[in-house]
Amino acid sequence: MTKRQLKFHDHEFEIDTYWLDSLDDQPKPLAIVFPGGAYKFIAGREAQPIALKFASEGIHAIVFDYPLISEKQAIYPLVLQEIATLLNWVGEQSKVHNIDLNKILLVGFSAGAHVVANYNTLMTNEETKKEIFKDDIKVQPAANIIGYPVIDLTLGWPKEDWAMKISADILYWQAQEHLNNNSKPTFIWQTVTDQTVPVMNSLVYAQKMELLHIPYELHLFASGGHGSSLATYVTQDGNEDNVNFANAKWWELCMNWLKVRDILPKE
User: Where's the BD-FAE-like domain (predicted)?
Assistant: First the structure.
């Protein structure tokens, strides 16, 4: 793992890169990971373990240390501007690290999934994109993966006054409302018993994708809490509730979906 500092205008941000050694000249997919943390912190259980899991599947990974709630700077639109900057940087690195620019994934958990969902809506619409990021975005994601996602800030999370702190502009509150015909295919998973982020978030996003005929795959597991990450002992973090053999199947299901999408080779 190597840390890198990137910059959008005068705002610096950090990424952790997990490049795979090239044993051949075959370009590899890249997953850009957005951990959860309620926009208050970056959840470690959804950072390095997820990046290493992608690496085990032959996929480069980057963990993005996106902006958090502070008094100095609003999260939006800065976070979307930083993602666009990162994607353009990835394009510059493609030959150095053998990155397949046609197989870029945005991977978000909880609040990180809200970031991914907003990028998939606002930055795939030319009208809203040009208001947020003036330059060309030369690299675009091929697909998204979101786990126990925050989609709509009015559906039960946050319960306190976090919505206004995340953004005072309601443009960024309800990602499903801005899905469009250019939005990318998305793999969605959550538990129906999630007591932190209501499952309705996943349902409204999938429903809008269905109406727009955007490819998606939705998996809702019968039990389990919020934030289980891989749902195995690897990401248990001292909490037995984070281990769930049934929910852990999401990874295998997701890898199968990536094969269906021709992002991973079919075996």
Answer: 23-208
Alpha-carbon distance values, 147 to 75, 190, 203, 218 (Å): 21, 6, 12, 10
CATH number at residue 85: 3.40.50.1820
Determine, yes or no, domain membership for 159: yes
**Cα angle at 229 between 60 and 267, to 5 degrees?**
50
Mean pLDDT score across all residues of the chain? 93
- Write out the residue range of the structural domain in which residue 220 sits: 2-260
Cα–Cα distance list, 194 to 43, 189, 238 (Å):
17, 11, 19
The per-residue pLDDT for range 54-109, each reduced to its tens digit, is 999 999 999 999 999 986 788 999 999 999 999 999 999 999 999 999 999 999 99
Per the CB < 8 A criterion, the answer to whether 46 and 229 are in contact is yes
